[in-house]
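Hi V.,

You were right to ask for the full record rather than a summary. Here it is.
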Amino acid sequence: MKKLLLLILFNFIISNKLLACSWTSSSFCDTSQSSSFQNDLIVYGKIIAIDNDGIDFEIIDVLRGQENNTIIRIWDGVDFDCNGTFSMAASELGAVDKHIIIILPKIAEKKSSWEVIGDYRRPDFFQYTPNLRVENGIVYGLISGFETYPYVEEQATYENFKDSWQTNGNCSSVVLGTESYKLEKTFKIYTNSNHKFKISSNINTEFKVRVFNINGLKIESSELIQKEFEIDLSKYSAGIYFINLTYENNKIQNFKIIKK
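Predicted structure:
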């Protein structure tokens, strides 16, 4: 009987840990207003250096708060229970020269040996969306609203995004855009196994594939694809990944897959 009770307790703890590692994220705009981040700095800039403990970041615009330095330090955060797939390494925010918008908690009290008081730490993204990527003047990611399945990535011009913060102090007037082309009419995705996914196109045109992890870091890319393409995620951890397809004069389709 005692062994049975211990087994039940063990299974309960493990189940709770597994459940704790699954979530639907709040949007960036909701995250910025949440109690966890509502007083934090929000900046737009680019990653200029990466090392084992964090990244150096060049600020281009300050959207909320104050920071007098152009170059700041973002240290690795402290991993939570979902360690591994959901690492808090700042390097996973993107590669050198990648542009992002990010909410930054200032370090007032050290949570790890590598942190420096007065610098910043990578924000916790468990149930949140604290960063967006910016490419060619377009902001991409879960900007506002709700995460859906299949995932359709929201887009806004950076100038419109910036103007909303300058005018309202928040995201309230950001004009969102998503491609109006129906995913099921243009592309289909099939699961070949737990880690292989096949994309099939019903249009006679070349397309480009880019695969991002949950932190917005590009992990795979291929160009000049026609009709079919297989994505192999066998060397990556289980979790959520985003597929970006570009075709026909820069039309875009985005969706989410889950590697088990």
